[in-house]
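Morning run. Coffee first, then this:
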Amino acid sequence: MERQKIRLTREFSFEAAHALDGYDGLCRNVHGHSYKLFVTVRGVPCGDETNPKLGMVVDFSDIKRIVKQHIVDRLDHSLVLADNRDNRQFREQNINKWQRIEIVPYQPTCENMLTEFAHILRQELPKCVELVALKLYETEKSYAEWLAQDNC
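And here it is:
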C-alpha cells in the first residue's frame, strides 16, 4: 500500500486570564478565558514493521506531552501580561500571593499567543512531523488560526 501523508489533530484546553495594555476596549481589564487549542500535524505513517509505532504519524501521547509541557502547564490558571515595567513590578509585588503570573514578550492576544505556540512547537515536535495548523478558541464563538502555508 502506498504511504500517504496524514494529518492528526489533538485538542487541549486551559484556563487563563490576561489584560491588554493600552487597548481601547474592555479587554484592557483583567479577564479570563476558557481556551481551546487545536494542534494539527502532518506526516507519513511509519512503515517499519519492527517499530511499535507502525502505522502512526506520531503517537498522540507525544503530542500531548509536548504541548502540555511547553504551553498548557505554563499558562493554565495563569495571569498573562505583556512584558513592561509596570507589569514586571506588579508580578514582583504579587508573586507570593498569586504564583502564576506569566510575563510574555508580546501583547497577550490570541493572535500573538498562536505565533509563540507555533514557534515552540516547530522546535519541539519530532522531525518526522510537520506543524500544519493551530486554532485557539478564546471564547466559544471566537478563535484565531495559524496555518503553516501562510507562514513559509
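The CA atoms of residues 16 and 77 lie 5 Å apart. Good start to the day.
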